[in-house]
Amino acid sequence: MKALVTGASSGIGKSLSLYLASLGYDLILVARNKEAMEEVKKKVKTKTKIIPLDLLKEENVYKLYDLVKNEDIDILINNAGFGLFGEFSKTDLNRELEMIDLNIKAYHILTKLFLKDFILKDSGYILNVCSSAGFMAGPNMSTYYATKNYVTKLTMAINEELRQAKSKVHISALCPGPVATNFNKVAHGAFALKEASAEYVAKYAINQMLRGKMLIVPKIRMKLTLFMIRFAPYRLQLMIAYHIQYRKEHGKKVK
Q1: Is 242 a catalytic residue?
Q2: Residue among 144, 145, 150, 204 flagged as catalytic
Q3: How many C-beta neighbours within 10 Å does residue 114 have?
């Protein structure tokens, strides 16, 4: 059994890798930080291959697939990504375009290429690490929310296509709320809500993925929040999201 994890050097990606190894999966770890992946490798007993690549660059996404397409991979986890706080009129355009390249384009390409391989052998799992943001619009974090909406809805659509085809291939979207990772440092903000541990989210996500769950939402509080959002008017949703992101950007925690 073998799993490929992008963004594997820290946070959720690291925790997903460690948990998969504990289940007996060999690993292919992908991220920019080779040294951090070496530290992950030291902590596991299964065979581990490290591929240092920056998936911001489209050519590297295709390069990754070419490097591993004959590895007989059972699980693909698209996890590499980042966010950015701030008003849309004030955030850096180039940084946002990089976010789109990584959060959308890399996910899209790898999902399509590996999905075709998995369909041919009629087995395999794809886990796209999305966010609870994938169900909402996010003032003060608009581009990030939009990227997560794209991947969440894409994953759901593919899931139904596979279900209608009675395929044994499974695709899931992991949609957590706040998670204790270095996301805030990269995005220049702080979560306003209590964060779940990356270890808890990873274990929950893999277990639900292997059960064929389409939408994976750790923590009851976040499940209830997403359920209630369905009944709120869009203007109310936007107002709530605005104030949540404002608190994040300015580092104001709420209990």
Answers
A1: no
A2: 144
A3: 23
